[in-house]
Amino acid sequence: MSRYRGPRTKKIRRLGALPGLTNKTLKLKSSYLDRSMSNKKVSQYRIRLEEKQKLRFHYGLTERQLLKYVRIARKIKGSTGQLLLQLLEMRLDNTIFRLGMVSTIPGARQLVNHRHILINDNIVDIPSYNCEPGDVIAIKNPEKNQSIITKNMNSFQRPKIPNHLVLDSTQFRGLVNKTIDREWIDLKINELLVVEFYSRQV
Q1: RNA-binding S4 domain: which residues (predicted)?
Q2: How many domains does the chain contain in total?
Q3: What whole-number distance in Å separates Cα of residue 192 and Cα of residue 72?
Q4: Which of 28, 57, 168, 182 is 20 to 30 A from 10 in CA distance terms?
Q5: Domain membership of residue 45 as a residue range
Q6: pLDDT of residue 201
Q7: What is the DSSP track for 106-174?
């Protein structure tokens, strides 16, 4: 299954706020909320599926990529759900988004693909690159690309930077100082349901 490129507000209506997919917010009419909260029975499969879809659309992953991360998390000692979220949060495209350099994860992925990002002074053009403590993320040719980042940083209300990252906004550089803690992951999701959804495939 390919990466989603359709209307983003459609996914927000279905799944709720997805800050990584889009910074838009929707004000739903009370009549719409009444219909969505009707007495229609919701299956356990649907509940797990929607939690999985939240994770997939927020981080901009394909089905195959998400399944790969679940398999990696299961092999590591610890809570599979929390390890899964940590693996996704430490991706390069998400780290750039969390530093506030761009307004969405797709925007961060575009910066990486166009070779504008340096990690420890080396160009990295792989959005799924796993950032590690001690990594320094910088913009290539800051004088040339400063307008891109400045525009992004001023065009939206930036959320608070998580405690595992440090941003130097004057130099357009970020530092990863540790692995992210669960409480700093602002996506409203039950990761255990995602693990349960994939339990038969891993």
Answers
A1: 90-148
A2: 2
A3: 15
A4: 182
A5: 8-87+186-197
A6: 77
A7: HHHHHHHHTT-EEETTEE---TT-B--TT-EEEESSHHHHHHHHHHHHHSS-PPPPPTTEEEETTTTEE
